[in-house]
Amino acid sequence: MATNTTQTGPNVFQSRIGNFTVTGKAHSLSAWFVLSLRLMMGIAFLNAGLSKLLAAEPFSAAGYLMGAVPANGGPAVGFFTWIASNPTALAVIDVAVPFGQLAIGLGLIVGAFVRLAAFFGALMMVMFYLANWDVAHGVINGDFAYMLVFLAVAAFGAGRILGLDAYIEQYKIDGQALIEKYPKLDYVLG
Length: 190
Hints:
mainly alpha, two-stranded antiparallel sheet, about 10% strand, globular
């Protein structure tokens, strides 16, 4: 007869969705790997944002959205071409992409508001995945993999590993740690 035991203690993590529970045990080096993922994505996004902002020509997504996206034939072609043909939507995208990449990169590098940064990074990667649609080599590509890296960084609370989130959460307000006083901040910090 099989028994069902739940492990507790250091390096053990568990999640339950409905009646399905998964349990894992992290290696002692896991924190370093999670930190390296956070820093890698932070540097990549900081570089991407800075290269767009410091380029000789102002950044515009119009050419890509009108040319490459339809050629890729993805499921959201209509949405992306609508953005490119709508001056207001395009103006928002032309600001949101480089400044979003810059903010995500900085947040990840310093470890501040990491879950919020990772959420928007994952959202951006989903949009890039749909725009760069090419399933010739399978449905998993770099954009999809980066989206999963962002989600892992958020799930593991990577901002608490040599990051500012560890300090922000413990900031005292009326003698109580910020994260205890406002527990919903756990969705953006960590």
